[in-house]
Amino acid sequence: MTLRLVDPGADEAAEVGLQLLDRRAVTEAAMREYLAQRGFGTAAIEDAVAAFTVRGWLDDGDYACEMLRQYAFKAGQSRARLRAQMEKKGLDKSLIEQALSQLDQDEPQWEYDNARRFALSKYAGILSGLDFGDRQAVTKFRQKIWRGLASRGFCAETCQGIAMEILDQET
Description:
Number of helices: 9
Oligomer: single chain
Shape: elongated
Structural class: mainly alpha
Strand content: under 5%
């Protein structure tokens, strides 16, 4: 396929880029990195990326929304964790915030629900054997939940709410 690009090496860069796009969706940053690793010059890479973007084959906004659709509702996925994964993929911070804001509008409780599912699945065994009469054991368990959630990037308010909710359910 010839895209008739300006830089002489851009047609070849576009062909190589299309092979990548045939396998999977990527961000603009990932496409640039991929083409650079294949030895193409900056001008050829920029021409190819621009051609893909104009045609809608590379769209970081769509990529961010799709990534959230796939990962946002998995137990243990926090806003901070998703943001870090998206930044690692090379997505612009404004696109990430826009996608997360849209998710918040569509599903206001998504992060809290993920934290709850994670905590219930991870700590169900401990919870079933917990002696609620032993205040020290209950305190340790609450701290364990808190640490587990905080280490996954959940905010303090969510950690506290989930810990209290789980313990209140059982008493």
